[in-house]
Amino acid sequence: MYAQVIVDIAHSQVDRVFEYSCPEDTRVGCRVKAPFGGRIIEGFVIGLSQTPSFAAEKIKPITEVYDEAPALVPECFALMEKLAARYRVPKAAALRLFLPTEMRLGKVNESFVKRIKLTGGEPSLSKSAKRQAEAYAYLSKEGDCEYVPLTKKFGSGAVNALVEKGAAEVYKVKRNRTPQYADRAEGQKVLTAAQVDAVNYIENSSRRVNLIHGVTGSGKTEIYLKIIADKLAEGKTAIFLVPEISLTPQMLSQLRARFGGQAAIMHSGLSAGERFDEWWRLRSGEAKIAIGARSAIFAPLENLGAIIIDEEHDSSYNSEAAPRYSTVEIAKMRAEYNGCKLVLGSATPSVESYIEASEGRYGLVTLTERINGRPLPEIIIADMRRELKRGNPSNLSRPLREELEATLSSGNQAIIFINRRGYSQTVICTDCGYVAKCENCDVSLTYHSEENCLKCHYCGAKYRMLTACPDCGGARLRYSGTGTQRVCAELAQLFPSARLIRMDNDTVAGKDGHYKILRQFAEKKADILVGTQMIAKGHDFPAVTLVGILDADMSLHFSDYRSGERTFQLITQVAGRSGRAGDKGKVVLQSYSPENYILRYAINYDYAGFFENEVKMRKAALYPPYSLICRVMVVAEKDGEAIEALKNVYFAIEEIRQKDAGEFIFFNKMHSPIKRIQNKVRYQVLARLRSQRHLARIYEVAAACATSNVLVYVEENPANLS
Ligand code: ADP
Ligand code: ZN
User: Fold this and answer.
1) Phi–psi pair at 696, nearest 5 degrees
2) CA dist 446 to 133, 582, 676, Å?
3) For residue 581, is pLDDT > 90?
4) Do residues 63 and 13 make contact, with C-beta atoms less than 8 angstroms apart?
5) Distance between CA atoms of 425 and 447, rounded to whole angstroms?
6) What whole-number distance in Å separates Cα of residue 567 and Cα of residue 556?
7) Rounded to an integer, what distance in angstroms lies between the CA atom of residue 223 and that of residue 343?
8) CA distances from 657 to 206, 651, 714 (A)
């Protein structure tokens, strides 16, 4: 027998299929070890044949078949070529997406527990062997049990003697490292008419992709769960994606309560062993629902009945490292392959998705009401310019303070959202204007009061806090901007008896960090939750009746065509955490530009108005999806080498442009907005194109201009233009 093998080396020079001879019981999808260029490497069997495709004596044998059962599902091989072509990566890199790192190269293995049981043979126990007799009696009474605890009880000498005499035997069983979360014991709900209609619409829709546009609290989760339950009943499987790892435990609890061990979790917060076991539970068919963030789209499930992407607008669904894939795009490929539905859900669908739906290419379900007709929270704008004029320099406006007071005295909870962690954004010398910056990155440092240090949020470097300006020696340092720590300090002063809890990258250490904080808040062990984007999405805390948004219009000032959309989404999502159950909710939105039209749409929950305006603007100014923004990044340690590569990229694309100038709406080369990160300089060639016509050529140019010292890569409509 002969195996066609893709070697696990993601390099264009070995990006083809190699042939080896193999044992008869080798199966497609198995990982193997094989000789390659003088060493032994890992590979994937993608096909088998009885006859070799060239001289048999030249074919080397496989060294070892790695998997007893094939690790890769057949779908991988069908999608491999497509993914490799779409994202311009070698086939091995495409296959790797389907295998988490800990699955590869034998880094993690199964974990076993030793157990012991009686064999049924009569032991010849001498009178003096009292402990052996006790252990024997114990085993007869209890049946089999774990080996290690038994040796602790009766001594390993006695236990091992029983084994040596043939009276007992030790055996191994696989231990499932399934992550444990306390499951929210919530009964199954009777679906509302709107939820039933939504499920029926989607299940009977002729469209492959269906979008649920439902206001926050409209009960989208129950719709997803019903669709999943229906698919499981048909003997199929499902993938359920959520954007933030911090959300996953909450969702998982809900899914576990509903589906038991059939739900498996996949996220980076698990230990490697847990991930390994959860992955195999899916692969073996024991678990049928994969839930997780972006990478769970590659879950090793066969016979998919539905793929669900919650908060589909979220930018975390786009991978920012190679391969730079779009999760929705891959979900479409898998839905097509399996002949199943893809369901996208959001209170604020991305402009791109909503265009698809409004032009009839996606099915569309609209839910305009919250469950039980609960009103959406009222959003009040606090004009921060007026606050300053009135002599209130603090981060908390008067309206927000008043609402906080009312909320606390009624025993409800509040969430305060601020985009930035730390204490203050920058430290500035008021004498000479010096700003503390990172040595490795071209960004200003953030002051963290608890550790009394300055931190770089790009590379994580820590610096001692300054006592004087390093440039002029002046001691008048000013902290400008604000962060979660500072807001907490101000709140503690204003409301000394309120219990505060903070959630940001500094406080969520550990693999269950998110979960612990959210749980504490859910159990009402705190009154106010202060946090960054982490708290914006998805959470359902019934007692929260007030949300404060401290710096919502900050992102309005980014020079990015998506900044309006981002701001609208953020406000709607954060506001959506308020008033979801008992009392009516309120939101205080602090802004320095309260007349801004995006804020106006947001406070009126006017998605339609926002969308219409946004589409009009993007059409007129030719922004995506009515054009394609293509950024070629050039990153290197040495400035000279980067500039050299940048020129090569620029002139190669300029050549394309000269033959087809009308296709280019914009074209130039420049420093990236952040000129240096982790000691690497960053340049870019930026092009706005009318179509995809020259995209393939641009990828080729990028690949040709990269050197061993200079990284060159292409980004399409990047979510982050820094
Ligand atoms: P969304 O995801 O649309 O923001 P959720 O799915 O979180 O909304 O639902 C909002 C709240 O309504 C949750 O507390 C949920 O438990 C509750 N809920 C959803 N469907 C029902 C139902 N059919 N009957 C009663 N409560 C429901
Ligand atoms: Zn840095």
Assistant:
1) -60, -40
2) 67, 39, 17
3) no
4) no
5) 6
6) 6
7) 10
8) 41, 9, 17
pLDDT digits (tens, 9 = 90+) for 68-84: 788 889 899 889 999 99
Query: Residue 500 phi/psi, 5° resolution?
Result: -105, 150
Taking CA atoms only, the protein residue closest to ligand 1 atom 5 is 219
Question: Do the beta carbons of residue 42 and residue 104 sit within 8 Å?
Answer: yes
Q: Would you say the CB of residue 219 lies under 6 angstroms from ligand 1?
A: yes
* CB of 292 shorter than 6 A to ligand 1: no
The span from the CA of 77 to the CA of 100, in Å, is 16
- Choose one of 310, 540, 578 to mutate for the ligand 1 pocket test, by most ligand atoms within 8 angstroms of C-beta: 540
Cβ(631)–Cβ(714) below 8 Å: yes
Q: Residue holding tokens 């590379």?
A: 459
Which residue's alpha carbon is at the smallest distance from atom 19 of ligand 1? 219
Give CA–CA dist 256/262, Å, rounded. 8
Tell me which residue has its CA closest to atom 2 in ligand 1.
220
* Helical ranges in 260-397 per DSSP H: 272-284, 327-338, 351-358, 384-389
Specify the pairing of strand 289-292 against strand 145-146: unpaired
The residues pairing with 589 across neighbouring beta strands, listed in sequence order, are 381, 549
Burial class of residue 692, CB neighbours in 10 A (0-12, 13-18, 19+): exposed
Distance (angstroms) between ligand 2 centre and the Cα of 441 equals 4
Give the whole-angstrom CA distance, residue 19 versus residue 4: 5
The arithmetic mean of pLDDT across residues 120-144, rounded, is: 80
| Burial class (CB within 10 angstroms; exposed 0-12, middle 13-18, buried 19+) of 229 | middle
425 CA → ligand 2 middle, Å: 14
Short-list 295, 290, 264, CA closest to 178: 264
Distance from residue 676's CA to the centre of ligand 2 (Å):
9
Residue 305 in 3-state DSSP? Answer: strand
Among positive and negative, which fits the CA dihedral 71, 249, 485, 451?
Answer: negative
By C-alpha distance, which of 652, 604, 651 is closest to 380? Answer: 604
* Helices of type H across 604-690: 607-621, 639-659
H, E, C per residue of 411-479 = CCEEEEECCCCCCECEEEECCCCCECECCCCCCECEEECCCCEEECCCCCCEEECCCCCCCCCCCCEEE
∠ CA 190-191-194, rounded to 5°? 155
Instruction: Specify the higher pLDDT residue, 438 or 204.
Output: 204
Which pLDDT band holds residue 329 (cuts at 50, 70, 90)?
A: very high
Quick check: 163 and 112 in contact, CB under 8 A?
no
Each residue of 600-613: pLDDT tens digit?
Answer: 999 999 999 999 99
Strand order in the sheet with 145-146: 145-146, 111-118, 168-175
Kindly state if the Cβ of 220 falls inside 6 Å of ligand 1.
yes
Residue 257 CB less than 6 A away from ligand 1:
no
Q: Whose structure tokens read 């890992």?
A: 42
Determine the 3-state secondary structure of 339 from DSSP: coil
Contacts of 47 by beta carbon, 8 Å cutoff, 6+ apart = 3, 4, 17, 28, 77
Q: Residue 160 corresponds to which amino acid?
A: N
Q: Under a CB-based contact definition with an 8 Å cutoff, are residues 417 and 548 in contact?
A: yes
Lookup result for tokens 């906080």: 404
φ, ψ dihedrals at 600, nearest 5°: -60, -45
Range with the poorest average pLDDT among 127-136, 345-354, 699-708 = 127-136
As residues whose CB is below 5 A from the ion ligand 2, the structure lists 438, 440-441, 456, 458-459, 461
Report residue 352 as tokens.
């791109």
